[in-house]
Amino acid sequence: MRPLVIILGPTASGKTALAVRLAQQFGGEILACDSTQVYRGFDIGTAKPAEAERGGIPHRLMDLAEPSDIFTAGEYRRRAVVVLDDLSRRGRLPILTAGTGLYLRALLEGLADAPERSEGLRARLTAAAARRGHTYLYRLLRRMDPPSAARISPNDTQKLIRAVEICMMSGRPLSEVHRAGREPLQGYRAIKIGIQPERELLHRRIEERVHAMLGRGWPAEVAALLQRDPLFSAKPFEFIGYRELREHLQGQKTLEEAAQAIAVATRQYAKRQMTWFRKEAGVTWISGFGDDPAVVAQASRLLAEALQQPLAEAPARRDISDQV
């Protein structure tokens, strides 16, 4: 069985920084498992690591689709398996940074036999939401499938439509459909390391990171994207931060109001991530941030033991702290 290292944790917890350190030590490459980082052009707000932050380590499974493309968990799994096969042939250790629980589940457990998309039903749901308000789809899903409603943001229209569509077409809740007919990933042994910062410290880091992203030109990035798609019809415009900055650029919010709204939404997202990941089996959790040397040392020992090989000294590298 080939090892597959998985670094789990909430946004801003330091998954990338830890993955880079482990990849340097153990001859690995990094696979992003993030539903926002697959889209080209949406860079700063999705926390794609800049070239200088990657420590010389290849990062795969980012920038796979245009913003107007429909990119699914099934497509992610297909792309990820191709990358895993390539790394296996070259003797490289795959280290996956997992921010999107559904993508991780799709890769490890396979996908359910869900109904095909129905454009007619989708159009009716979209029209109903326009008439009854933006919370209509969320309220509808909460009645039909409370477990799915608990893990989907009320603002994620595309996921809400898909969840309601599956419920209506299959006659079963999405959560039940997802449990049936799966084909697990074969030939790999998952080694799961979870990062769990203290909540107040994570909230503080989230706020700091939001302001750092704004300082790196996030509003200008959104403005350039809006020029390409003035109707902001692409799904990524609903991502956390892009929605709020779009409202700022349209004069609906001040920049500080947008920043505070982004921080609040990000904290809520981090809570949803941890709710999902705590249910993940076989995770060894480490308290702290992934760029903390003590966390890196503990994760290195855990991985060396799991791989049953001596812990190699990391080559001399520049400091990669604060690189999430």
Rounded to the nearest angstrom, the radius of gyration is 20 Å
Number of helices: 13
Number of strands: 6
Fraction in helix: 40-55%
- Largest sheet entry: 6 strands, parallel
Beta-strand content: 5-15%
Across the major sheet, the strand order is 3-2-4-1-5-6
Order of helices and strands: EHEEHEHHHHHHEHHHHEH
Estimate the mean pLDDT confidence: 90
Which architecture of the largest domain per CATH? 3-Layer(aba) Sandwich
The separation of the N and C termini measures: 30 Å
Derived from helix and strand composition plus strand pairing, the structural class reads alpha/beta
CATH class of the largest domain: Alpha Beta
Overall description:
With 324 residues, the chain is of the alpha/beta class. It has 2 domains: 2-111 and 182-307, 3-Layer(aba) Sandwich (Rossmann fold); 119-179, Histone, subunit A, CATH 1.10.20. It is 50% helix and 11% strand. The protein has a 6-stranded parallel sheet, sandwiched between helices. Helix 5 runs parallel beside helix 7 (157-170), helix 9 packs across helix 12 (255-277) and helix 11 runs antiparallel to helix 12.
